[in-house]
């Protein structure tokens, strides 16, 4: 029986295609520049959900930053290893919700909707508490999330081709549960070597809810942007949130 409770099967299926087929549509340059501007040279940096190193590798290369990456997918980390033979990125195969590292970091970040891969609100709060635990006293937590375009759904469903090429066709089907804020998604890739399924269950988070969950973790929001070039946040598209220690919750 298929497991919709996490992104594990999705990562197993897509690790070797991730950079070409998924990450390719998300430019790394603006994100890397933004994150470098947050901290100075010599800073300690931690990425939760490092994946194939799409952000961590350019961030750590020649920047004077010490970068550590945590991911629960051995397949994704194996791809990262082939791209990083010099070991620029220190990696840890672990769950970002409960991993314990023996240091605190000047910058902790989690991008590309990775927090949405956590199955429910309690787990998302537990992750934010763990992120806060790894944050230095004056450190910053940066989260990238995508606003969900609910107008795209018809009766809480989407069925749509997202790519049609001579060598590959991709069909996406999504079921939306508005009460639980969950999306159950199946991506069917028709490739020359056969049909590939990439199932994924996500729980999305609205920005106000994210702020409240961060406050429960002892963090306060100190910045919000609508993109990595510090565009104003308008409530659509990308949402970049910055948090630091400190909360008015007792």
Structure write-up:
By secondary structure, the protein is α/β, with parallel strands linked by helices. The protein has seven helices and eleven strands. The strands form two sheets. A seven-stranded mixed sheet has the order 3-2-1-4-5-11-10. The protein has a four-stranded antiparallel sheet with strand order 6-7-8-9. The longest helix has 13 residues, at 121-133. The radius of gyration is 18 Å and the shape is globular. It starts with 7 loop residues before the first helix and ends in a 5-residue tail after the last strand. The model has no long low-confidence stretch (mean pLDDT 91).
Summarize the structure.
By secondary structure, this protein is of the alpha/beta class. Helix content is 24%, strand content 35%. The chain is built from seven helices and eleven strands.
Supply database-style keywords.
250 residues; alpha/beta; 7-stranded mixed β-sheet; 4-stranded antiparallel β-sheet; 7 helices; 11 strands
Strands of the widest sheet, in order across it, are: 3-2-1-4-5-11-10
Reading the helices and strands in chain order gives HHHEHEHEEHEEEEEHEE
Report the radius of gyration as a whole number of Å. 18 Å
Ends: how far apart? 44 Å
- The biggest beta sheet, please? 7 strands, mixed
Structural class: alpha/beta
Query: Which band does the percent of strand residues land in?
Result: 25-35%
Q: Please tally the β strands and state the result.
A: 11
Q: What portion of residues is helical?
A: 10-25%
- Could you list the spans in which at least 5 consecutive residues all have pLDDT below 50? none
Principal-axes geometry comes out as globular
Q: Overall pLDDT, averaged?
A: 91
Please tally the helical runs, counting DSSP H or I stretches of 4 or more residues.
Answer: 7
């Amino acid at each position: 029986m298929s497991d919709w409770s996490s992104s594990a099967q999705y990562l197993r299926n897509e690790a070797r295609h991730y950079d070409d087929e998924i990450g390719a549509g998300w430019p790394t340059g603006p994100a890397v520049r933004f994150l470098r501007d947050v901290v100075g040279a010599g800073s300690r940096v931690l990425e939760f959900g490092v994946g194939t190193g799409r952000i961590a590798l350019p961030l750590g290369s020649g920047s004077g930053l010490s970068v550590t990456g945590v991911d629960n997918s051995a397949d994704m980390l194996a791809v990262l290893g082939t791209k990083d033979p010099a070991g620029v990125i220190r990696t840890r195969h672990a769950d970002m919700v409960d991993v314990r590292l023996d240091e605190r970091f000047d910058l902790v970040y989690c991008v590309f909707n990775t927090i949405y891969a956590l199955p429910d609100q309690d787990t998302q709060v537990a992750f934010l508490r763990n992120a806060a635990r790894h944050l230095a006293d004056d450190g910053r937590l940066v989260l990238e999330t995508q606003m969900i375009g609910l107008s795209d759904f018809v009766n809480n469903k989407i069925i749509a081709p997202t790519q049609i090429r001579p060598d590959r066709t991709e069909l996406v089907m999504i079921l939306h549960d508005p009460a639980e804020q969950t999306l159950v998604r199946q991506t069917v890739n028709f490739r020359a070597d056969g049909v590939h399924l990439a199932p994924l269950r996500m729980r999305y988070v609205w920005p106000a809810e994210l702020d409240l969950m961060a406050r429960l973790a002892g963090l306060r929001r100190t910045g919000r942007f609508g993109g990595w070039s510090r565009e104003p946040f308008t409530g659509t598209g990308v949402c970049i949130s910055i948090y630091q220690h400190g909360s008015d919750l007792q």
